[in-house]
Design brief:
The structure holds two protein chains of two kinds.
Chain A: H1 21-25, E1 41-47, E2 53-59, H2 61-64, E3 69-74, E4 105-106, E5 112-118, H3 121-130, E6 132-137, H4 144-147, E7 163-171, H5 174-180, E8 183-191, E9 203-209, E10 214-219, H6 224-235, E11 242-245, H7 261-273, E12 277-280, H8 283-289, E13 296-304, E14 310-322, H9 332-338, E15 349-357, H10 371-389, H11 393-400, E16 409-410, E17 416-417, H12 423-433, H13 435-447, E18 451-460, E19 477-483, E20 489-493, H14 502-514, E21 521-524, H15 542-569, E22 574-577, E23 580-583, E24 589-591, H16 592-601, E25 613-619, E26 628-637, E27 644-654, H17 661-681, E28 711-715, H18 733-750, H19 764-772
Helix pairs in contact in A: 9-10, 10-18, 14-15, 15-16, 17-18
Chain B: E1 3-9, E2 12-18, H1 24-31, E3 50-53, E4 56-59, E5 72-74, H2 87-94, H3 104-117, H4 123-129, H5 141-153
Parallel strand pairs in B: 1-5
Antiparallel strand pairs in B: 1-2, 3-4, 3-5
Helix pairs in contact in B: 2-5, 3-5
The chains are: A alpha+beta, B alpha+beta.
């Protein structure tokens, strides 16, 4: 239950209901598909039905002949647009030229081949069916390990080994660690392809203003400014003549942290036709053409002493890239390497990544982006090691944690963990769930032949992404704070929130700093014509970086307010608090609104000061932040059906200082749901011919209300020293902590049959077969 | 080929000429300019387009506009009165039962029906009732809380 705020009080730390909700609960928010413009056309895209094929011919005439069809464009019309950019760079990276429409060959099912523009949504779809494309189907490969085996069909004929890059990273002395180890455990662990499935599909409305040679492009994106810079390049348009507007965005989870062919295509269409054009992605297109996530096959080796001390970790990581690089595709598995040691003080690390082309839609950032894979790997390996050594999974974790006295802590992968107390959330979670009693109960039910499991994961993550040198496009964030002449406060953040609630949390921080009511603060974002350049919302960075930029802009303003206050009060020494400037000697005061009015009226200025109360800050973070936590899951497996009953889900997350506990809870719940989705139900399945078998919501098992357990969520609060707010970030925590806890739990349940690892998703079919086979996969 | 339909939407009668193949959701959004109900899949799975037709929650992407001829349609825009929110809307706000908000209009219309049919629904009954509406943001827990809270006030 939220608190309703009626007067000025300290807002940070309170469960305040969100400022953005009134428009969302009344159906009056504006998403891209809600935009209507006079004379607006509708676009529909013709896509490849083949995983790989040569295009022999395209006949658009039957489509252009249909009344209502305005234009049909094919690859040769748009050859000069683009290419779709890859923003990541790695040594020796092979980057295929990614045309916005296929030219003579298609590389995955859903590859755009033509775009049909019509006066009406229905006519555009009818006409798309009339475009005749003659294909010569080619052999395809969609399995990542088959793709690098000798003799596999080449996704790109110029690179027959299907290898986009090899990447090596090493820290410490791995060979020595393995030579000295008393025990080595090995396991192949997969992290399957997932479909992000934002409830709002992508969509674009583009409007060309011929007289000004300017383009306004509304897009459902997480990165309006980066999109503008890259799209201007793709379209050959001056950047200052392109305005990107991000209206309400119906979820992203990384899938809208990208620049897509369709965004450039709609700009192109609007410029060619001179009319506004709308393209709304269908759900099947969303499944086949918007990036997927994960897609790892990992080979782990862990070296240890018999007392459980972890000495070294080796990882061979095979990343399914799909047919192209989208914006960050090749960079995602490198994040996994950074997070390889998890929370453990292991200083000997070796990782080798091979990035592999397949005839599938590209993978890229999906909630957690590289960190869930790494966490799943290390948390599974720690459990496998514990089982090998017959140690309790709690004991082995406590033994290897980086100690709370060791921060800042330098890892073997080149990171510096900012702050932490890793045992604290684990101990709180153990207390909450009653761990000792549970283990006793497990013994009892096992004696009855029942399959009960207890699974633990203790995760760390890299958030507040990130310092600019560590990112492809700048990792800072910006904020402008304007105190209007009336004293009302307008914040413009370079972040582009789409459900994370920053219109509320940023208002809480600003209201506290200025001593005004939360209703006096308005937070704007997502329009490049209004908001100063920014980076965007992803990587759990909004509050930690964007919030900090706003915090520093507020500090600058407070200094200016005090100068104006002193001048207006004729005082030497003033304090600013609760929205008033007060003469410390006389107690005389003047309100913020009075000061604001005087600053804009500017009859008199403080020495060296400018009129008005506006401050802009671009903040470069000195480091990432490193949240952590512990998740514990109790399961029972039904041996007759393979069904998994989630009996309890306890999580204790430490995301640093909490601004709004209500919103943090929501982020954790949603994150856990996506983690459970991966652990138990979701998987993008391509068949050998490149067809996406799980091509719609009927075949792709998203978590439903009835499949979710009650999540018992709580927190510890270890402030980050990286930013003055002490915040770390929480958007991805639930997802990262969840999947290993679930799998560890089910493996624990089936350990009585000798099971030591199961790959996700843990479908009833997989579990039933395993039980039937007496634990042998 | 077109047909005339007359229906009542949020208490107001209107007549329009539509193609027989036009989906009710497209009619509501593009002809009647009610963009509260959303399109998440067009295959009747996600529930973002849920509205009430003659008092029953239906997925308006699974119905043609012509099938709504002569019937009463209630959309998210029709909830609440005199500037006051419907108790279910208020509960969704209080309980933080939404994040990106895209599924929310459909979720609220379904939730209203759950409570109308069973004012004392248990957590499991609420979860069962919400099965036809997908949310990718919240993990559903706060939605369950909202339905419970609204039911308690009803």
């Amino acid at each position: 239950m939220a608190t309703t705020i009626t007067k000025t009080e300290t807002l940070v730390g309170k469960r305040i209901r969100r400022r953005e909700d009134p428009r969302l609960i009344t159906g009056t928010a504006t998403y891209v598909d809600d935009i209507q413009m006079p004379g607006m056309h509708h676009a529909c895209i013709v896509r490849s039905p083949h995983g790989a094929a040569k295009i022999k011919s395209i006949n658009v005439k039957p489509a252009t002949d249909l009344p209502g069809v305005v234009a049909v464009f094919i690859g040769k019309d748009t050859e000069k647009v683009g290419p779709v950019p890859c923003g990541a760079s790695l040594p020796g990276l092979r980057v295929p030229h990614h045309y916005v429409l296929a030219i003579d060959r298609v590389y995955f099912v859903g590859h755009p081949v033509a775009v049909v523009v019509a006066t009406d949504r229905y006519i555009a779809r009818d006409a798309a069916d009339l475009v005749e494309v003659e294909y010569e189907p080619l052999d395809t490969v969609t399995d990542v390990e088959k793709a690098i085996a000798p003799g596999a069909p080449a996704v790109h004929p110029e690179w027959p080994d299907n290898t986009a890059f090899n990447y090596h990273q090493e820290g410490g002395d791995v060979d020595k660690a393995f030579a000295e180890a008393e025990v080595v455990v090995k396991q192949r662990i997969t992290s399957q392809r997932l479909i992000p499935t934002a409830m709002e599909t992508r969509g674009v409305v583009a409007e060309w203003h011929a007289g000004d040679r300017s383009l306004t492009l509304h897009s459902s994106t997480q990165i309006p400014h980066l999109l503008r810079t890259l799209l201007a390049m793709m379209l050959g348009l001056e950047e200052n003549r392109l305005r990107v507007v991000t209206p309400e965005v119906g979820g992203g989870f990384g899938s809208k942290l990208n620049v897509y062919a369709e965004e450039a295509l709609m700009g192109f269409v609007a410029m060619k036709t001179g009319k506004p054009v709308k393209w709304i992605e269908g759900r099947r297109e969303n499944f086949t053409c918007t990036i997927h996530g994960r897609g790892h096959v990992d080979y782990y080796e862990v070296a240890a002493q018999r007392d459980g001390t972890i000495l070294g970790i080796k990882l061979k990581l095979i990343q399914d890239l799909g047919a192209y690089h989208q914006l960050l595709t090749p960079a995602i598995p490198t994040l996994s390497v950074l997070m390889m040691p998890g929370l453990y003080k292991c200083q000997n690390i070796r990782a080798d990544i091979v990035g592999v082309f397949t005839n599938a839609v590209p993978t890229d950032a999906y909630r957690g982006a590289g960190r869930p894979e790494a966490t799943h790997g290390i948390e599974r390996m720690v459990d496998i090691l514990a089982a090998e050594l017959k140690m309790d999974p709690v004991e082995i974790r406590l033994k290897n944690f980086v100690g709370k006295e060791s921060f800042p802590y330098a890892t073997a992968t080149g990171l510096t963990y900012d702050s932490g107390n890793y045992a604290a959330p684990l101990e709180k979670a153990l207390d909450t769930i009653g761990y000792k009693k549970l283990r006793d109960e497990q013994k009892k039910v096992r004696a009855e032949g029942r399959l009960m499991g207890i699974g633990i994961s203790t995760y760390g993550e890299i958030c507040a992404i990130g310092p600019s040198p560590a990112t492809p496009a700048g990792g800072w964030e910006s904020a402008t704070v304007k105190i209007e002449p009336s004293g009302k406060v307008t914040v413009m953040t370079g972040c582009s929130p789409h459900g994370q609630g920053e219109e509320t949390t940023f208002a809480q921080i600003a209201a506290d700093e200025l001593g005004v009511g939360i209703d006096d603060v308005l937070v704007l974002h997502g329009d490049t014509a209004i908001v100063q350049y920014g980076i965007g919302t992803f990587g759990s960075r909004g509050t930690a970086i964007g919030g900090t930029a706003m915090y520093y802009a507020l500090q600058e303003l407070k200094e200016k307010i005090k100068k104006y206050g002193a001048m207006l009060l004729g005082s030497e020494d003033v304090a600013f608090h609760d929205g008033v400037c007060e003469d410390k000697k006389t107690g005389k005061s003047i309100t913020l609104a009075e000061i604001a009015a005087a600053s804009y009226r500017a009859m008199k200025l403080p020495p060296g000061e400018t009129p008005g109360l506006v401050a802009t800050n671009f903040w470069e973070p000195p480091n990432f932040t490193f949240p952590f936590g512990a998740h514990i899951v109790v399961t029972e497996v039904d041996p007759d059906t393979g069904a998994i009953d989630l009996k309890r889900y306890v999580c204790v997350d430490d995301c640093g200082k909490i601004i709004n506990p209500l919103i943090v809870d929501g982020q954790v719940h949603g994150g856990v749901a996506q983690g459970l989705g991966q652990a138990l139900w979701e998987q993008a399945v391509y068949d050998d011919s490149g067809q996406l078998v799980t091509g719609e919501l009927m075949d792709y098992a998203l978590p439903r209300a009835s499949s979710m357990p009650w999540i018992e969520s709580s927190h510890t609060e270890t402030p980050s020293p990286v930013n003055p707010l002490g915040v770390k970030g929480v958007g991805e925590a639930g997802t990262i902590g969840c999947s290993p806890a679930v799998v560890n739990s089910v493996v624990d349940a089936l350990s009585v049959l000798g099971v030591r690892h199961i790959d996700m998703p843990l479908t009833p079919e997989k579990i039933w077969n395993l039980v039937q086979a007496g634990g042998r996969a | 080929m077109t047909r005339n339909i007359t229906l009542t939407i949020n208490g107001k009668k209107r007549t329009d000429t539509v193609e027989p193949r036009m989906l009710l959701i497209h009619y509501l959004r593009e002809v009647a300019a009610l963009t509260g109900p959303h399109i998440g899949c067009e295959t009747s799975i996600c529930g973002a387009c849920t509205v009430h037709v003659d008092g029953k929650a239906v997925k308006s992407c699974a119905m043609f506009a012509v099938q709504a001829d002569g019937r009463e349609v209630l959309t998210i825009e029709g909830l609440g009165a005199d500037g006051k929110l419907d108790p279910m809307q208020e509960a969704f706000w209080n309980e933080h039962a939404l994040q990106c908000g895209f599924c929310t209009p459909g979720m609220i219309m379904t939730s209203k029906q759950i409570v109308e049919r069973n004012p004392h629904a248990t957590e499991q009954e609420i979860r069962h009732g919400l099965e036809g509406n997908l949310c990718r943001c919240t993990g559903y827990q706060h939605i369950v809380n909202a339905v419970k809270a609204a039911a308690a006030k009803a």
